[in-house]
Structures are given as structure tokens and as C-alpha cells.
Amino acid sequence: MPRPFDPVVVPTLGEQRGATFPRLVELMQRLLAEDGCPWDREQSFASLRRYVLEEACEVIDAIDRGDRGELKAELGDLLLQVVFQAELGRAEGAFGPDDVVQAICDKLVHRHPHVFADLTVDGSTEVLRNWELIKAEEKKKAGKTGILEGVPRSLPALVRAQRVGEKVARVGFDWADAGGSRAKLTEELGELDRAIEAGDKDAMEAELGDALFALVNLARHLEVDAESALRRTIGKFSRRFQHVEARVEHEHGGFGKPGGEGRLPLEVLDRYWDEAKTRDESGPGVE
Q: Could you tell me the CATH superfamily of domain 157-221?
């Protein structure tokens, strides 16, 4: 008979020092035991990849909603993925949960010499500059010398583009100000127009990518987070389109078959869209 796990006593907020972490490790080890959970035992680093991304996105959603209870739960789900993979590493003899924690502790101490050593810094900008210098030295020792090697390829494209821009800007490969970045955007849009006029699909894709990259660089110069800006617009569009859907349902019984008979004229849909836009602009929470 598997032994039950006793309820864990959670300290008050002021006393919490991570004492409950070992219980999560113990639970994960129990799930991966020979008589544990069949599904958990079938998982691999590759199969868990999607869940790491999904849980991280759910953490971001909770942050955006400002729901601290939900954030607590989602951080737990994300932490489970860390412990799960650490236990898979232990099973194959590569590393374990203690190695994972020790590695990040060592990194934090090493990259904060202004806290744990005698280095003096003047503000957060200098902290970030020192952080990048220390990271570069670490990569050099590990045989990784490329400035962009630390930017994950699996990041969402907008986030990755902005991080790439930040990285190269720190070594001086950047426009002097937003004006140069804005001019580059105009140049790339002109090249996109010419590709469209030529009907060259491959060129359209390439030039559209260039224009998007230039737009992200402009966002960085304006100190705007491109991913957050686009997410905001998607949210606004979705909210307004929900109004259009409701009006179509009420006035016309729904959209009917897409592309088929009964498709509403764009002029009608635009009128409902303008209603939603006016309501947005006159009501609370204007975007």
C-alpha cells in the first residue's frame, strides 16, 4: 500500500522561506516511482515542452488580470514543470532538483557583485550593463561567444525580435534615436510595396518580415513593449468584434454561412464596429 502524504503546514507569509519545496519534490518522485502514475512515467523532456510554454502563458494571463489567487495557482503549475523535468534529469543521471536550485543560486550571486561582493553601481542601468558583461564572460568560458546565443529561438517572434534588438544595441549596433528607426520602417514598407506590386510571394514574406522587425525596433526605441502592445490591440479588437457578433445575431439571426448566401455587406458590419468603437471611447477603460 502506498503511504498517504500528510498535509503540509504552510507558514504565514512573513515566515515563508521555501520550506515546502521538498514536499513537491517528494510528491513528484512518488508519481514517477514504479508503482506511481502511468501517465507521468511516460513523459519525457520533449513531451513536457508544450506544458512549460502553456503554464508560463497562464502565469502571464494571471498577471495581466491582476488576480493574485490565480497567480499563486499558476505559479505552482509552472513550478511543477520545473520539478518534473528536474526529476527526469535525476532519473537519467544528468542532474536533479538540488542541482537546478544550486545552479540558479550560484548564478544570482555571481551576477550581483554589487550585492554579494564589493562592486559599486550607479542605478539599474549600470546593473543591467554589468549583468550582460558577466553573462558574456560566462558564455566565453563555456565556449559560447555569440552575442545572440542567449536569446531562445522558441520565444514568440515579437518578443525574440525585441530581445535581439536589445542585445545588439548594448554593443552599439543600433540607431542613435527613434528617428533612425522610424526612417528604416518607412524604407522597409516601401520595399514591401514593391514586392506586392511585383506579385512575388517569396519577396512579400521576406519584406513583411523586415517591416515587422523594423516596427519592433521602433517600439524598443519608444520604450514600448511590442508584445504587450499587440496583445492590447488584439484584446481591443476581440472586445469590439464581440459587439459586432451580438448585433448581427440580434438583427440578422447570425452570420450565416461564411462566403455563402446571406453574407452581410461590409457596410453593415462597419456600422456595428463603429458603435463598438464609440462605446469604447466614451466608456470606462478606454484603450
A: MazG-like (1.10.287.1080)
